[in-house]
Design goal:
alpha/beta; about 425 residues; five-stranded antiparallel β-sheet
């Protein structure tokens, strides 16, 4: 399978760390006076700066800063070809150059022009003839400001890189969860109309729920229906539910008669002991309908009762709860689960469900009782849209947001 992945951010996307010492800093000295340039270079050498480049005029300076990176520029105001103000304007209009700190150098009579240069973006001002102590202070301050600005840029790029990586990982995780959720849904059986009419409603509370169900004919006379609910949600719960479902569907428990519900639960209990499943367990209701005798055998382990709805003599539907005693699946080794049975009259409905269908907390924090759910199904369980009405009713009681647990119910018309 070919997949397209977002390119991972690379180290080259992160700017180099800013210079921290004079030895690491590069300085461009711009002055049309050779003597002034030499004086500035000697003063900078005395401060520890060795990486110094000269420019004799503004145009040459612009060409240099476009070709290589500098940490600081000392810029004379009055020069031929391009003066200091024109150089500053060029820098200000170029976003790639705008971070370069500039110290303007001018004579005492050019103070007004120097002020305009600072307004145009220069970092500081140094009068001619310059004082070495003042030069040290101006240069040190300007470089420290640049270093802090560059550090901020590095941090911003690093944060953006980390954010991009996290978003990329989240997208991949969402895609994998969606793929896993689609797989879980793909193993659920399709609703059917013959020989039994079966429909269901399934809504996990998260991307991956812990509920799963199925039904199939074991042989021409015996029809199995089952619903399990793994503790918790997410990938672990989903994996356990799918694995258990595949065991049931394939009938792959050794020495187990899958027409005997109690034997099936006992076999699953030993096959999925909590101590071997990262302390995860599941509840299960498993029933087998014998079509010739219309007898339903069933067994449950820690699971809610199924409801058998039958036509009442006065009209409407009456219900019977189908449950057998038994611990959750995987709690203790060699547990024996009982099989019980009942006769299914013509026109009956069987509802196999999880506790997410009725353990709904309302806005006041009160949970619905099973009896309340049972009465609702007596009234609406036989309607064509009965399961949809149940889900809407539950959603209304719960309020905004996803349900707290998976919602799964299977309805079989006999």
């Amino acid at each position: 399978m070919t997949t397209t992945e977002d390119p991972a951010p690379t180290a080259s996307a992160v700017p180099a760390m800013p210079a921290a010492t004079p030895q690491q800093s590069s300085v461009l000295v711009v002055d049309d006076s050779r003597m002034m340039r030499l004086a500035l270079i000697r003063a900078l050498n005395a401060l520890g700066f060795n990486n110094i480049t000269e420019a004799a005029n503004g145009r040459q300076a612009v060409e240099l800063i476009q070709q290589q990176s500098f940490d600081l520029m000392l810029l004379d105001m009055e020069m031929p070809e391009m003066n200091g103000m024109e150089v500053l304007t060029e820098i200000r209009n170029n976003t790639k150059l705008s971070g370069l700190p500039v110290i303007v150098i001018s004579g005492a009579e050019q103070v007004d022009s120097a002020v305009k240069c600072i307004e145009a973006g220069a970092e500081d001002y140094l009068p001619k003839p310059f004082n070495p102590t003042l030069l040290r202070a101006r240069v040190t301050t300007s470089l420290e400001k640049k270093r802090l600005r560059d550090l901020d840029k590095v941090r911003l790029v690093q944060l953006q890189t980390e954010k991009d990586l996290l978003e990329q990982m989240q997208r991949r995780l969402n895609e994998e969860l969606a793929e896993a959720a689609n797989y879980v849904r793909s193993i659920l059986p399709e609703p059917t109309t013959t020989p039994l009419r079966i429909d269901w409603k399934y809504q996990p509370s998260t991307e991956l729920g812990g509920d799963a169900f199925g039904y199939h004919w074991i042989d021409p006379d015996h029809f199995a229906v089952y619903l399990l609910d793994v503790c918790g949600h997410g990938v672990g719960a989903s994996l356990l539910s799918v694995t258990a479902m595949n065991v049931i569907r394939s009938g792959s428990l050794p020495n187990t008669d899958f027409r005997d519900p109690g034997a099936v639960l006992s076999g699953l209990n030993n096959a999925f002991l909590m101590e071997k499943q990262n302390n995860m367990y599941f509840t299960l209701w498993y029933g087998v309908y014998h079509a010739p005798s219309r007898t339903l055998k069933y067994s449950s382990g820690g699971h809610p009762a199924s409801l058998l709805l039958t036509p009442a003599s006065g009209g409407g539907l009456q219900s019977a709860q189908l449950r057998s005693p038994g611990l959750i699946i995987g709690a203790m080794e060699d547990m024996i689960y009982q099989t019980q049975s009942c006769v299914v009259p013509p026109g009956a409905l069987l509802l196999v469900l999880c506790d997410g269908c009725y353990e709904i907390k309302d806005a006041a924090g009160n949970f619905m009782e099973f009896d309340t759910f049972e009465k609702f199904m007596q009234q609406h369980g036989g309607e064509p849209d009965g399961l949809d009405r149940l889900h809407s009713w539950v959603r209304e009681r719960h309020g905004e947001g996803p349900l707290d647990d998976d919602f799964s119910i299977v309805r079989i018309h006999f």
